[in-house]
Every structure is written in structure tokens, then in C-alpha cells.
Recover the amino acids of this structure.
């Protein structure tokens, strides 16, 4: 089946054409337009600006993705939430209109589940896909969830953050350190600048807490880390570039240690065949490498993480979700749901 997929939950406007390939999904094209730079001067997403940019971009993005291939498309998929209401409306209404005009089935996709289904994107028929049961670690700007997946549709929420999402924590910590929005990639760049000598010299001076680390639960908490950074910055008065980078490194270490500890606790509890990471924060190099090492250290468990370009918001993952776990819906019944949960 060949599907046109649409994504417009936040500040990315995206469309992709995908089709099934072996047990996975092959991407025929994936187009993404982003308004992220427009939000930089405000230090975060401005919903009205994001929605206005969605309206400007949606038709050019869909047109580029579909190209001359309209007649071979067999269905239309769209993220219906979670996200910003104004942004969601643009994608959902466009998908409904196309489904109706082309007389093709419409598939509703939960955006957070779509992040997880990015792990089914394959190069060819021989690419390995995840096996069930699986544990999913969903890490984004708005969510931090541990999910037990029995199959493509039966998912159970088993843990996650009690307060800030991990991406939000990266963004807020970066802001406190004077780094631009979005903070996650900026903190990663700062981490790369920290030398062994800097770690030895300053590392222990700025030890941050690891909240809930030793608790026998899959709960996580990141807001205390942000508060700890704020306290250090206030106490110091001003932060030079080296101190800023060392603080960013220690913050990143703390967050990654918590995520790995809780994911491995879920692995111990649920004995999955695969662990799947997904969401914007899954682009973090240290997290990818360290979690892969931890998971593959446990016997036969396989680790999956999407290619970098499919970690952030994109429509290819929405198409993958519609093919692997289709949920057909009548256009008249599909409404955006800004606060739908991952499970
Ligand atoms: P999403 O909500 O899935 O669109 O992902 C956006 C979030 O991912 C933002 O909070 C970013 O700061 C975060 N992010 C992106 N790249 C990285 C990275 N390399 N390390 C940590 N967080 C990141
Ligand atoms: Mg997202």
C-alpha cells in the first residue's frame, strides 16, 4: 500500500509518500519545512506563529511530496494529536479534504506512537524490524514515556516523567545557561567542547542530583535538575564559556544516566525482545550510544533507534504508523486532539 502522510502537530509542516516493504516501511520521499528559527528569538514555540506558518507551508509541502504520483496513492494518513490546536487543524483538515476528494481511505495516527513507528522504517526487505514484546522509550519536547508494547496496537504505559519532559528540561537548562532555543542540540554541542582536562578540573564542583535514580519504580523527574542549574547560575552570578559547557555536560550526563537506568529497569521487569527509542531527544548522540551499549549488554535484546532525520518531527513516521498499525477513520469523525496521550 502506498500512503501519503501528513504531519503538522507543532512547528514542522511535513508530508511523505511511503509504502510497505517486507515487514517494514520504505520511504519514497519525505519533505519537512520548519518554522523553528522564527521561534528562536522568543526562546520557545509561539503557537500562533507556528499555526500561521503551517498554513503557508502545507500546500507547497504536500505538492512537493506527491509530485506527479497522485494516482498511485492508496490512502492518506495524518497525525491528529498531541500537539498545538492551531497547527493540528491545518494538517487534519488538509488530510480530510484530500481523502474526500481522492476517494481514498483516511488513517488517523497518534503523533507519539508515530515517533515509535519510525523504528519500522527500512532501507530494503532485508532490514531487521523490531520484535515483540518491546519496550519503547519516547523522549521528546513534550513527553517522556516508557511503554510496554505487546504488539503493534496493544501498548501499556509503564513509566515516565512526573514533571518536565526530558526535551523541555534540555531546553530550559540551555536557556538558563544562555544557550539558544532549541536547547537539546546546543547542549550536545557544548558537551563536545568539554575536554577530559575540563571534566577532571571542574566536574566534581558541579555535581547535579539524579532524582528518583535509586527508587524501584519507572518514574522519572527532571524539574529538580533545572532548579539545580538555576541555583548554581544564580550563586555564581556570571558564567564563563568553560563553566557553561561543563554545566551543560554534567546536566546531560545526569539526564542520560536517569533515562538509561529506568529503561534498563523496564528491560529487567518485562524481558522484551527489543528496546525502541524515539522522539526528538533520541537524536542525542551520547544517549543513542550509551543506551545501545546498555541494552545490547543484556543477552538477546535488540536496540532500535531511528536515523537522525526521522527522530525529529517528520511525516515518514506517520506513514510508517499508518501501514504497520492502521486505524482507518471516516473523515467526518476525525478531529484534532491536542492532549491525547502516547497510550
Ligand atoms: P520533538 O518534541 O519530538 O519534536 O523533539 C524536540 C525536542 O528534542 C526539543 O526539546 C529539543 O531540544 C530536543 N532535542 C533535539 N535534539 C536533541 C539532542 N541532540 N539532545 C537532546 N535533546 C534534543
Ligand atoms: Mg514530536
Amino acid at each position: 500500500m502506498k500512503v501519503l502522510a501528513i504531519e503538522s502537530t507543532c512547528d514542522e509542516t511535513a508530508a511523505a509518500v511511503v509504502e510497505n516493504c517486507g515487514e517494514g516501511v520504505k520511504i519514497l520521499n519525505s519533505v519537512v519545512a520548519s518554522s523553528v528559527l522564527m521561534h528562536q528569538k522568543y526562546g520557545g514555540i509561539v503557537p500562533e506563529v507556528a499555526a500561521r506558518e503551517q498554513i503557508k507551508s502545507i500546500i507547497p509541502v504536500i505538492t512537493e511530496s506527491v509530485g506527479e504520483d497522485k494516482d498511485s496513492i492508496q490512502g492518506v494518513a495524518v497525525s491528529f494529536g498531541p500537539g498545538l490546536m492551531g497547527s493540528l487543524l491545518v494538517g487534519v483538515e488538509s488530510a480530510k479534504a484530500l481523502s474526500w476528494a481522492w476517494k481514498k481511505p483516511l488513517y488517523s495516527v497518534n503523533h507519539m506512537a508515530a515517533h515509535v513507528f519510525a523504528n519500522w522504517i527500512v532501507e530494503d526487505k532485508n532490514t531487521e524490524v523490531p520484535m515483540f514484546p518491546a519496550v519503547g522509550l519516547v523522549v521528546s519536547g513534550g513527553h517522556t514515556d516508557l511503554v510496554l508494547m505487546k504488539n503493534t496496537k496493544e501498548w501499556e504505559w509503564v513509566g515516565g516523567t512526573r514533571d518536565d519532559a526530558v526535551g523541555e528540561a534540555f531546553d530550559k537548562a540551555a536557556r538558563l545557561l544562555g544557550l539558544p532555543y532549541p536547547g537539546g542540540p546546543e547542549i550536545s554541542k557544548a558537551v563536545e567542547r568539554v575536554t577530559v582536562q575540563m571534566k577532571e578540573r571542574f566536574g566534581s564542583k558541579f555535581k547535579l542530583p539524579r532524582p528518583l535514580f535509586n527508587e524501584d519504580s519507572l518514574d522519572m523527574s527532571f524539574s529538580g535538575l533545572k532548579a539545580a542549574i538555576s541555583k548554581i547560575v544564580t550563586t555564581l552570578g556570571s558564567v564563563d564559556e568553560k563553566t557553561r559547557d561543563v554545566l551543560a555536560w554534567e546536566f546531560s550526563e545526569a539526564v542520560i544516566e536517569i533515562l538509561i537506568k529506568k529503561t534498563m529497569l523496564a528491560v529487567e521487569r518485562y524481558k522484551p525482545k527489543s528496546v525502541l527509542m524515539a522522539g526528538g531527544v533520541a537524536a542525542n548522540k551520547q544517549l543513542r550510544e550509551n543506551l545501545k551499549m546498555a541494552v545490547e549488554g543484556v543477552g538477546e535484546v535488540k536496540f532500535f533507534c531511528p536515523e537522525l532525520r526521522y527522530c525529529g518531527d517528520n511525516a515518514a513516521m506517520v506513514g510508517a504508523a499508518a501501514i504497520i498499525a492502521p486505524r482507518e477513520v471516516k473523515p467526518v469523525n476525525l478531529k484534532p486532539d491536542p492532549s491525547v496521550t502516547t497510550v
